[in-house]
Amino acid sequence: MGLSILSLIKLSGSSLLGNPVRSFLSGIGVFMGVAAVSATLQVGTISRAVIEQQLAERDAPQIFTYSGWNSITKESVQFSLEDITLFQKQLHGLKSISGMNWMESPEVVFQNQQANPTARAMTVDFLNTSGRKLVAGRAFTSSDFENYKPVIIIDQFLVDKLFKNVNPLEQSIYLNFRPYIVIGIIASKYREEEEPKGVVYLPMAIYSAVTGEQEMMMLLLRPDRIEDLETIAEEFKKQLEQRFPGYEFYIGNTVEEIVQQQKTMDSVSKALLVVGAIALIVGGVGIANITIASVIERTPEIGLRRAVGATQLDIMLQFILEAAILSLIGGTIAIITVHGATVVVAQQFKLPYKFERQTAIIALSSAILVGVGAGFFPALRASQLDPVKALRGE
């Protein structure tokens, strides 16, 4: 009858403690491999957190294009509501699409307060396209456009500058000497190098009625997924060139540098993961070599155990458990060490970091798998030794 698992674990532990130098050398190999894998996974986790943080500080990822230009006729073409409807139907993976015009040198006045913000005329779905969230009030509705209502949405910066302690909702402000009613407030988002000026949005319908401009200078497209940004941009350019033959269009996106940064980080993470995997395999080879040496050294012990009733399975499981215990201990120490080092680095450079159990489980599981795999064949060899020859030390 074979030994119980608990007895085998105790026996394996005693064997490892009986030869601390051999156990330490095996554990070091596993430690280095798991540390490399764990560090690689942490780099990926932090890079994703950095990207998410940068995206959260901006509007939603968008593709944009300006009025097309014909280099032969020297004419430009602008967009209409019909174009928006058409592209919304033709482009797959699109969350929303909006048109936009700018107002030059806008001046906003409320009572005795004055500001010169950025002013943009937008189509009805602009909040969804930009990803902006309302702090208070409501968004534009179809009724605002159909009835040419003089309503306006402003950002928090403009609220603080113009209204002080007054509730801005339903207040009348003047934009270029024309009255508008404030119906909504959005959060302010500015890049570090950008000087805050405030921003106001008004419906494209009322803008067209005031200025006489029916067409739009710019289209903004928001994909369902940031991963589809480039694919949709390529398809969008093809659709534009088919709809407006002879005209050239510049297609860009609002997160180009972040996308490039993400690609670079992904490439670095993959390269580091390969290095970590190699280090882990090297650690496994070390376990295999030391286990083989251990089998040779302990041949008489194996013969004695077989002679007193130990089964082949007992012998094999003992050596496999020794490899697994070494992997577990070395891997655990490596994960704790890498986590501590990552916390210090993240605090030093103000990086977003949160310990993920999944990362630790993957790193530790890979260590145990490599350890068990490396120790399997030496353990199998040990279990197949002839008891009589083993007692003689052969």
Automatic annotation (TrEMBL):
Record's bilayer topology term: Multi-pass membrane protein
GO molecular function per UniProt: ATP binding; transmembrane transporter activity
Chief location of this protein within or outside the cell: membrane
InterPro entries: ABC3_permease_C, MacB_PCD, Macrolide_Exporter_MacB
ABC3 transporter permease C-terminal domain mapped to chain residues: 274-387
Assigned GO CC terms: plasma membrane
Signal sequence segment: none
Subcellular locations according to the entry: Cell membrane
Keywords attached to this entry: ATP-binding, Cell membrane, Membrane, Nucleotide-binding, Transmembrane, Transmembrane helix
Domain MacB-like periplasmic core intervals: 23-237
Transmembrane segments: 28-51, 271-296, 316-338, 359-380
PANTHER family: ABC TRANSPORTER PERMEASE YTRF (PTHR30572:SF4), MEMBRANE COMPONENT OF TRANSPORTER-RELATED (PTHR30572)
Family designation: Belongs to the ABC-4 integral membrane protein family.
The protein, known as: Macrolide specific ABC-type transporter, ATP-binding protein
